[in-house]
Each structure stands twice: as structure tokens, then as C-alpha cells.
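Project outcomes to date are best conveyed with an example. Our students and postdoctoral researchers have been running inverse folding experiments weekly, and each run begins with a structure described purely in C-alpha cells. The record below, which covers 150 residues, was selected by the lab manager from last quarter's runs and is presented without edits.
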């Protein structure tokens, strides 16, 4: 699976640890930056992550900032992307199972490395409940996220 990961300056250390762990786990990972902890604007990295996921270059994305809130908002500006702010594995799994989330966001100031790994594992290992079922209740709702007239 091809993944993309991006952060702001508050989450560069967490991003680096997660990137290395994901690569060691066998994933192909595009690190979209930044590489150093100098102040940057999280929307720039959120938009970049959303673009990579929306165009299919990456199958799923991981967005990180201090709280996870700002970068998740910026990622969700792209209607082809569904980014869920998660803080524990159940929310990460439900984001996939019910909402077909293709990105998750976490806050480096709120989430430790082991919890972040547990969230990512749940996110990557959980399938969408209505995969292949265009008439399913979850798919109907997910379709409305990108097109309210559905």
C-alpha cells in the first residue's frame, strides 16, 4: 500500500518516527515534509497531502500537526478526501469501516508514539463496510460527503 505522510513544524519528530516505522513495516511512504521544525503553515502541507491522495498517487494519508485539528480541516477541503481526526484505535477503525476515510489526522502534542502506531494500524487494517456495495447504508452516506445532492 502506498501512503503519504505530512505534518507541520509541531509534528516533525512524530512524523519521522512514524515514517520510519511504516517503511520498516513494508509500506511505501511518501514524506511530504517538512523535514525540520522551523515554523510552517499547516494548510500548505494538508493541501499537499490531500492532493496526493485525491489523485491516487497515495492510497491513504496521515496528517499530523500539534493538535491534529488544523491540518485535518485543510485536508478535508479536497472533496475527494475524507480525513478523520483520531485519538485512539477505535475511532481510526470506525473512520474506515463507516466513513471510508482515506486519511487520518493526529495531534503530536496529544498523541504518543505508541498510540499513534495503534491508530495507524487500525486505520490501515480496517476495510470499508460497504466496499463493492453501492446500495449500502454507509456508501450512501459517504457519497453525500462529496456530493450533497446524492
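After processing, the design step wrote out the following sequence:
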Amino acid at each position: 500500500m502506498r501512503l503519504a505522510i505530512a505534518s507541520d513544524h509541531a509534528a516533525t519528530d512524530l512524523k519521522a518516527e512514524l515514517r520510519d516505522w511504516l517503511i520498516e513495516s513494508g509500506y511505501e511512504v511518501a514524506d511530504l515534509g517538512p523535514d525540520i521544525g522551523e515554523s510552517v503553515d499547516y494548510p500548505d502541507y494538508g493541501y499537499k497531502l490531500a492532493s496526493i491522495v485525491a489523485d491516487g498517487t497515495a492510497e491513504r494519508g496521515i496528517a499530523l500537526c500539534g493538535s491534529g485539528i488544523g491540518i485535518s480541516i485543510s485536508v478535508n477541503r479536497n472533496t475527494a478526501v475524507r480525513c478523520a481526526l483520531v485519538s485512539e484505535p477505535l475511532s481510526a477503525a470506525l473512520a474506515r469501516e463507516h466513513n471510508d476515510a482515506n486519511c487520518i489526522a493526529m495531534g503530536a502534542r496529544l498523541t504518543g508514539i505508541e498510540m499513534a502506531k495503534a491508530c495507524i494500524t487500525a486505520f490501515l487494517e480496517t476495510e470499508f463496510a460497504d466496499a463493492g456495495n453501492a446500495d449500502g447504508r454507509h456508501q450512501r452516506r459517504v457519497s453525500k460527503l462529496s456530493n450533497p445532492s446524492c
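The radius of gyration is 14 Å. The chain is about 45% helix and 15% strand. The training component of this project remains on track.
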